[in-house]
Design brief:
The complex is a heterodimer of chains A (about 425) and B (about 325). Chain A has about 425 residues and is of the alpha/beta class. Helices cover about 65% and strands about 5% of the residues of chain A. In chain A, helix 2 (about 20-40) packs antiparallel against helix 9 (about 220-250). The longest helix of chain A is centred in the middle third of the chain and has 33 residues, at about 220-250. In chain B, helix 3 (about 100-110) crosses helix 4 (about 115-125), helix 3 packs parallel to helix 5 and helix 8 crosses helix 11. Chain B has about 325 residues and is of the alpha/beta class. The chains are: A alpha/beta (about 425), B alpha/beta (about 325).
């Protein structure tokens, strides 16, 4: 045990002397998270998707046409669509080409008159051809808004007819007519109040496990709780590769042989290498979690449970790298194999795309992989506030992989150390 | 001396096969405290296998090996505690200083505290690295690294030290320094096993020499004993192209000639006096083919090696 500790401490000291590569690799998940933060903040910080910018060109310049942007820019849609007026088509085109807006709405001349004439009043929707998702979201929202507005207009048909009658007669309205028009709009407005109830709507989500829970989006903390663990584990596996590469290079330089001829048992020598990887990876994980907490406002709820998952994943990454170097014949070979394994695990384990979006078969595979299980466990703790007892399955998966890889690696390495 | 009878290093009937290759075919040798034993042989002779068995890195198929009376197979950790090894290639951590490197290796051998620091100071003085002990050894010259390599191998005051061709590829001055260090280590009382394929090193440094080839020790003794075994005869190497089938009969006609090796490119013979017999040898060799080069080797350890193995050490 003492020898293992000496060996592990020695390797850790070497990292402390030359930490450049490890710090560089630690920057990978932080940079990726930083990019996402920059892309979605401050909207992510408020727990909402970033608003989509839409230009409005009012060619009608009437009371009704000016109501269009007010209708879109107020109420629930205001959280998702940010409106900006534009003076003319050329300036709107320039803005679209520069990517400053996702779509253009043109309220054409004669819009108000068409409403009064009970004709179809059109609004032209021009999507930014360089974008796909955002214009489609705006289109869907506008279609929904149009359907609602058409319903309201049908309710307000009586007062509109009364206005048309007065305009056609080219005279001022009588007091009775004003009162009737007001009552008509009031009744339509009362029916509009019913829609306010929609704002208090909550949606219950039925999970495959059978539990029912309200779905909540808790702002930036929750947003990064979803993406940060995957990025951290992706980065950590590459860091584990860099740490293991040192052991592999030691072997090629004859340093492992020099340790092997010291008065230490094979078990102590192997344990020394494993302790070194495990301790270094655990420290890196804790540091990344603290940085995530400080920079990205990640709420580290249930630190004990998080630590168990982190230790399990550090253990797995240790076993993975020990296995690779126990089977590899050269540094280059080990790096190629480890790199390929990390990419495959990351892709299947949902490091880049949430496992929830995968087809059922791939999702089942991903949840059985150590990084997929760890990712799921982290989300369960950070977002859903689950405790250790509720995430035993993913934790068991992580530790099973870790133990299996380490056991195979130790067996192979013992055989290699003594011919 | 028989194996284990007070010898610091004792090897008896050691055998090892790697697949079909018989790397060691029952070698035996002993080394006493303070003695330098040279294991002399070409690449692939079995030197490294013997060293690796003594280090506990390779398990022998048969035979015994012990260090200071401790069996290296049955008690590998205890045996290695008394052993120092200086590998052929420099094996130190380039990002660490000499002091940190030595501290790590010292701790592996159980040194610690003031004893460790004192020993590091002492060994750094001895290998002339005390003035640059705190800089990363990646900045050291080749000679400095070799000296540090030796320091790491003997820091823990081992009673037996294995040097595995420690001077390969070094300049003459550095070689000389290292040979002096090896001698000093033996003078301090350690038993030294020194493998090399440099004849001059073996002649200059070793108290006893074992000539090893193809997994077997062909001859063993002090330098004087081996020279006597080589006899006063000279060796003549004729190089060119020859008919091998007729060579034994044709060369056998010459009196007092011993045929060592016959191949289509070389004839190797032993003569009492090349000066007197060469005039008779050359026409016969010419009749067997074409002689393009003639080399005469004076009586030496190399002659003995050629006589025993039929080939030169560099082959």
């Amino acid at each position: 045990m003492r020898t293992a500790a000496i060996i592990a401490a020695h390797h850790l000291k070497r990292i402390a002397r030359r930490p450049g590569l490890i710090l560089l690799l630690m920057a990978i998940p932080l940079t990726l998270a930083g990019i996402e933060y920059a892309a979605f903040a401050p909207a992510a910080a408020s727990g909402k998707l970033p608003p989509i910018k839409v230009l409005v060109l009012d060619e009608d310049r009437t009371f009704a046409s000016s109501a269009v942007p007010r209708l879109i820019g107020s109420g629930p849609l205001a959280d998702y669509i940010e409106l900006d007026t534009t003076a003319d088509v050329p300036s709107a085109r320039r803005s679209l080409q520069r990517g400053q807006a996702s779509a253009l709405l043109v309220v054409p001349q004669g819009f108000q008159q068409a409403l009064f004439d009970r004709r179809t009043a059109e609004i032209r929707f021009v999507p930014n051809p360089a974008q796909t998702i955002s214009p489609e979201i705006v289109r869907s929202m506008l279609e929904m808004l149009t359907a609602i507005t058409n319903g309201l207009l049908a309710r307000a048909q009586a007062p509109l007819d009364a206005i048309n009658k007065v305009v056609a007669a080219d005279r001022p309205p009588t007091e009775d007519e004003v009162a009737e028009i007001s009552r008509g709009f009031f009744r339509a407005g009362q029916q509009l109040q019913i829609l306010n109830q929609l704002q208090n709507l909550t949606v219950d989500v039925k999970r495959p496990s059978g539990t029912t829970q309200g779905f909540e989006f808790r702002g930036a903390s929750s947003f990064f709780a979803y993406i940060f663990p995957g990025l951290v584990m992706f980065g950590l596996m590459f860091i584990s590769q860099a740490l293991a590469t040192r052991l592999m290079r030691d072997r090629e330089a004859g340093l492992q042989r020099r340790i092997a001829i010291a008065p230490a048992s094979r078990a102590a020598i192997l344990a020394g290498g494993a302790f070194y990887l495990f301790v270094a990876l655990t420290v890196v994980l804790v540091l990344l979690a603290l940085i995530g907490s400080l920079v990205f406002r990640l709420k580290l709820t249930s630190p004990g449970t998080l630590l168990v998952i982190a230790l399990g994943f550090a253990f797995f990454a240790t076993g993975l790298q020990l296995l690779v170097i126990s089977m590899a014949r050269s540094d280059a070979g080990a790096q190629a194999v480890a790199g390929a394994l990390i990419m495959i695990l990351s892709l299947l384990g949902g490091a880049f795309v949430p496992l929830e979006s995968y087809p059922p078969v791939l999702r089942a595979i991903g949840e059985l992989l150590p990084n997929g299980a760890a990712h799921q466990a982290f989300i369960d703790v950070l977002v859903r506030q689950k405790m250790l007892g509720e995430i035993l399955r993913p934790v068991a998966i992580i530790f099973t992989w870790a133990l299996t890889f380490t056991a195979v690696a130790v067996t192979l390495e013992r055989r290699r150390l003594t011919t | 001396m028989t194996a284990g009878s007070g010898a610091a290093v004792a090897v008896a009937n050691l055998r090892k096969k790697f697949g079909d290759l018989e790397a060691l075919r029952g070698i035996s040798f002993d080394v006493k405290a303070g003695e330098i034993y040279g294991l002399l042989g070409p690449n692939g002779a079995g030197k490294s296998t013997a060293i690796n068995i003594l280090c506990g890195l390779v398990t022998p198929d048969a035979g015994t090996a012990s260090l200071n009376g401790i069996d290296v197979v049955r008690q590998p950790v205890e045996a290695r505690r008394t052993l120092g090894v200086v590998p052929q290639d420099v094996a130190v951590y380039p990002e660490l200083s000499a002091r940190d490197n030595l501290a790590f290796f010292g701790r592996l051998y159980g040194l610690r505290g003031t004893d460790l620091r004192a020993r590091i100071d002492e060994i750094l003085q001895r290998v002339n690295l005390a003035d640059r002990d705190r800089e990363p050894v990646g900045q050291y010259s080749g000679g400095m690294l070799r000296r540090l390599n030796i320091a790491a191998g003997v820091l823990h005051r081992p009673r037996a030290v294995l040097f595995d061709e420690p001077t390969v590829g070094l300049d003459p001055q550095t070689r000389l320094n290292i040979l002096e260090l090896v001698r000093a280590i033996a003078t301090d009382g350690a038993a030294v096993v020194y493998t090399t394929h440099y004849l001059d090193e073996a002649e200059r440094l070793c108290d006893r020499i074992g000539i090893i080839d193809r997994g077997a020790i062909l001859a063993e003794g002090t330098l004087a004993e081996l020279r006597r075994a080589a006899g006063e005869r000279e060796i003549v190497a004729l190089r060119g192209s020859f008919r091998t089938d007729a060579a034994p009969v044709a060369l056998g006609e010459l009196p007092d000639l011993q045929l060592i090796k016959v191949s289509d490119s070389e004839l190797l013979v032993s003569l009492a006096s090349a000066e007197r017999q060469l005039s008779a040898l050359l026409p016969i060799a010419g009749a067997l083919g074409e002689v393009r080069e003639v080399a005469v080797k004076q009586p030496s350890l190399e002659n003995l090696f050629i006589k025993l193995t039929g080939r030169e050490l560099r082959e």
